[in-house]
Amino acid sequence: METSFTLGFSYARSVVDGTHHRPTAPRLQVAFEQLPQVTVIDVSPYLPPLVDRIMHQVYRTRVRGETQSVWGRSRLKAYLLERLIHKRSQGVPLDATIQLHGFFQPPQPYFVYTDLSYAMVRHFFRELGDPAIFPGVTDTILAHQIERQQHYFENAQHIFAMSAWLAHHLQSLHGIPARQISVVPPGTNSEHSPRDSGRTPPQSEQTARVPKLLFVGGDFYRKGGDLVIRAFQHCRQELPGVQLTIVGPHAWPLAGAPPEGVIFRGWQRTDQVQQLMQTHDVLVMPSRFEAFGIVFVEALASGIPVIARKACAMPEIVTPALNGELIHSDDPRELADAIITVVRDPQYRANVERARQSTAAYYSWDRAARQMLQTMIATIPQHRRV
Questions:
Q1: End-to-end Cα, the chain, rounded Å
Q2: Looking at domain 5-187+364-384, which of 3.60.20.10, 3.40.50.2000, 3.30.1700.10, 3.90.79.10 is its CATH number?
């Protein structure tokens, strides 16, 4: 007989520009709801949208020369959300709560699912020595967030880390024992299915080999967009007619107009990005810092190779000479060589296509939810469960 489990689900909701929100938490919540032995109760703390939008504007300020809103990282918002999660979960008969995208401690035993930590951000902030990689981040902001998150991690029943890279830093930077950490890779946020085999051939297979490259990243500089543009100029010399599609920023992020051969699509919904992947040859995103990189597995599940960077969790997803390549520097020639290699060698595409169904099946929210539930049931002592 399966053990029943009542799970509180909590994540910080905030839609301040009317365009999008992170789909990770809603997809995981649905996956938990589909497990027959689980009853999910949403205890997410959220402010009325109008209040959130107004405060987003009120808290706009100049940070390192750019106008940004620091409302999401403010002490006031943290205090209000903390009060709200206690109010929403007080008296609710929950076995435990799982928390994403925030660190608000509910009254019940809680678990954490995360892709990064602020101590890790500070570590890389200092190591990389490039303020542009983390726009809007200051030492003062980080110090406050690290203090709150440390307490949050220490009081959690268990932490589910999206990558082994993060799990290592939770131990080395936060002092969390290895026994309290499990690596649970996320699912994709696109509608992939192991049964979906009707992939539209990329443009390069429909015409006379016109390679099409795809970059996806709203945070253009941190995701390496500037490097991709520079490498693309080298690629044009050896790949006649090569095209580059840029997705993510709301406005063209560089001076002047997009260079010849570059198609700027701006911000796109998740389903629109998936459609673009169906008609491109390679995803090129050499991020300087990446918490996990769900877009990489979405590309692989769509059947296209990936070019990323040998840093953060990217080596856990991309295997050189198999499903893509990893660069090591900001040398545009190195990136261009990797692009040319992947485009010209059909074995990369064949490898990715062959593993496509298993990739989509493994990087699923159903698998992630089952994996987490197994740990939750084993972790919460029977006498503490309602």
A1: 18
A2: 3.40.50.2000
